[in-house]
Amino acid sequence: MEKRQIAKIAVSAAIYSIDRPYSYLVPAPLVGKAVPGVRVTVPFGKGNRRTEGIVLSVSDEAERENLKLIDAALDDGPVFTAKQLELALWMRDRFFCTFYDVARAMLPTAMWFRDGERIGRDKMEKFVSLAVPAEEAAEAASQKRLRAPQQAAILSLMASVGEAAAADIRHFTGASAQSLKALVSQGYLEESVREVLRTPLTFSEPQAAPIALTAEQQRVYDGLAAMARSGKASAALLFGVTGSGKTSIYIDLVRDALERGKTAIVLVPEIALTPQLVGIFSAHFGDQIAVLHSSLGMGERYDEWKRIRSGKVRVVIGTRSAIFAPLEDLGLIVIDEEQEHTYKSENNPRYHARDVAKYLCVQAGALLLLGSATPSVESMYAAQNGKYKLFRLENRYNQKPLPRVTIADMRQELKNGNGGSLSAVLREELGWNIENGEQSILFINRRGAANLVVCGECGYTFTCPNCSVSMTYHSVEKRLMCHYCGHTERPDDRCPACGGRLNYVGAGTQRVEEELHALFPEADILRMDMDTVTRAGSHEKILSEFREGKAAILLGTQMVTKGLDFENVTLVGVLSADQSLYISDYRAHERTFDLITQVVGRSGRGDKDGRAVIQTYTPENEVIRLASEQDYMRFYEGDIALRRALSAPPIADMFCITVSGPQEARVLAGCVRVRKTLEYYFKDVEGAELLGPAPAAIAKVNNRFRYKLFVTCANTRRVRDILAHTLREFAGDSKNRGISAFADINPLL
C-alpha cells in the first residue's frame, strides 16, 4: 500500500465532547508546508464544512481509506512552537477545554483568519463589548449558526476577545452592520463611542543606575539568584510588607537572567499597574521589554507578539495572558501580587496563570517567583509545607514605619447623625491633607452612585429583567444599570408600583465623588473605576495626573489598592471595609484582609509618615483588626484552620460543575443528572465529597439560569478523566438539549 503523509489536526469546529486530533491526508503540494504548528483549512463533519485546524504532528503512514485531504495552509511557517503545542495539549486536559480554546488564548486576535485572510485593525471610534458571559455567547452562537450565521460569527469572535472596534468585527467576520445592531438590541452586545489612541511604546536607552539593595534585600536576592542559576525548576514565595522593595529584587533577578542568556516574564494583576512597572523596567532594560495586556489594540498586541517571537524582546511585562508570550530560553517568571483573583480566567480556558507558570518553569528549568505582601492562603500553605521556598522582607525600603491606622465605627457615626459615606475622622484627615499639600487615596469597592433604588412606601425595587440582581444607579448617566448583563433603563421619578417616593440606598464611587466635591469644593478629585477607564490609555492618564500632583484625592475601586507608589500619598481611606466580608465564599476573609492591607500600604511610601482610616460597621471583627495591624501570619493561621475544617483549598481541591440554560426546571434536572452520574463514578474515590446542586450566587444572568455542583477531592488524573467523561456524556444526552455544562477547578465563587 502506498505511503502518504498523514497529519493529526486539532479542528476549531470540534466542541468539547468531540474534541480530539483528527487524521487528514497531506496533499502533495502541501508536503513540507503543512507541518506542526501551522494552521490549515480542512473539511469537517458530514457536510464537509470548511474549518480551521492546527497541525499537531505529521507522520509517514500507509494511506488509509476515507481520510479527507487538507485544503490549504494558512501560514507560511509554524505560529506555534513544539513547546507551545505541548502546553496547549496539557491545558486542554487540565482545564476541561478544547485545544482551540487554548490556541485562541495563546495567539493575538489579529493572527486569526477570515476566509483565508489575516485579520487587520483600523482606527475606529465605535466599540462593541460583550454584555453576557463568554460561555453564553458561545452557546448562542451555536444556536444561531444555521438561521443567523453572521450573528453567530460575531458572537463566536466576541466570546474570545470580549471587546473590539465595530469596524474590526464587521471586517473579520464579514457580518453586516444590521447583524451587529441586532445583537445589541437582543442584549448580547453593548456599543460605546470612544477615543482610540494608537501610541506605540517608545523606549530610550537605559538610564537607571544599578539598584542599591539593603542588607535584607541583598540576602533575599542572593538566595533567589542561587535558585535561578541552578538550572533546575524551582519555586519561591517572596513575602514582603508593603513598601519593602520587592520590585528592586525583581529587577536584579531579571538582569541576572539576561546576563545568563535567559529571558523573563513579569506578570501584574491589573492593567493599571502596567504603566508604572513598564516605566521602571524600561529605565533599566530599554527596548528589550515588551508589554502585553488587553487594553492594547489588536494591532498593538500583534506588533508586540511579533517583536517577542522575533527574539528582539527578552523581557515581557503584562497581565494574565502575557504568560503565553512566545519567549525562548525562559529563565524566570515573576508573578507580582500573586494572590490576586485576576490571575484566574473565568472564561474558557479557565486556567490560573500560576499553574501555567509552574508548567513552563518545569519545562525550562526556570525559577518561578511569587511576590506579595498578602500571599494567597494556597501559596503560604505550599511554602509552609516545603513546596515553595519562603523568603521574607520585614522592613520597608525607606525604613519608615507602616501607616498609623484608625478604625472608624460607622455605627457611632449614624448615632451622631452622620449618614454620609465619610466618617468625621476621615473628613478631618482629608481636610488636613488638602491644606498641607499632601495627597490621599480613597477606596470603595463599588462603582455607581447607589446600589439599590427602593420605594420607601411599598418596598418596590428596580431589578434587572434579565438577571436576579438589583440594578445600580449611575448618577452621571442618570440611568440604572445591571453590572452583569449590561441592561440599562432610566428610572421613573416615582415608584412605578404605587407612586411613592424613591430612596437611593448605598454608595459607590460616583456618590462618594459628589460628597467630596460638596465637602472640599476647592480640591481636585480623580475617580478611577470601570466607568472612567474605558478608553485606551485612560489608566495611564489618570495615574499620571495624580503623580504630577494635579489632584488632591484619588478615589477608586480595587484598581487603586495594589502596586501604586506615590511619594506624596500620606492618607488612605477604606470606605466600606465590611463589603466583601460577609458573602458565602470561603475566600471572603482572605479577599477582605488582602484589600485592606494592600490599600493601607499605599500610604507613607515616601519621606512622610503615612496614616489610614478604615471605616467599618463591625470594628470588633478579627479580620478587620488583623488587617489594620498588618498581621498576616495570625490571619493565615486562623484562615487555614477554617479551611481545614471545611476541606476547602488548599486542603483539598474543589471542582465546580455549572449547568445553565433558559428554563430553570430543566437546568436543575440536568444538574441532578450530573450529580447521579458523579455519585456512581466517585463511589470508590477516597475522600471525595459531593455538594449540590444549588443555585449560583447570581442564579440568573441574561435570562439563563445557573446551578452548580461541587466536588472536593485531590486533583488527580483519574478525577479529571471522570469529570471530562461526565461532561462529554452530558453533551451527548438528548435530555440536555438546550442546556450546557462546564467544569472549573478551584473557581472564584
Describe this structure in words.
- With 749 residues, the protein is an alpha/beta fold.
- The chain folds into six domains: 3-98, PriA, 3(prime) DNA-binding domain (GIY-YIG endonuclease), CATH 3.40.1440.60; 124-193, no CATH class; 215-393, 3-Layer(aba) Sandwich (Rossmann fold); 404-446 and 507-642, Rossmann fold; 450-506, no CATH class; 653-745, Alpha-Beta Plaits (2-Layer Sandwich), CATH 3.30.70.
- Helices cover 33% and strands 23% of the residues.
- It contains 21 helices and 32 strands.
- The chain has a seven-stranded parallel sheet with strand order 13-14-12-15-16-11-17, sandwiched between helices. Strands 18-28-27-19-26-25 form a six-stranded parallel sheet, with helices on both faces. Strands 2-1-4-3-5 form a five-stranded antiparallel sheet, with no helix packed on it.
- Helix 16 (538-547) links the parallel strand 25 (525-528) and strand 26 (553-556).
- Helix 4 (149-161) packs across helix 6, helix 7 runs parallel beside helix 8 (246-259) and helix 20 packs across helix 21.
- The chain is globular.
- It starts with a strand and ends with a strand.
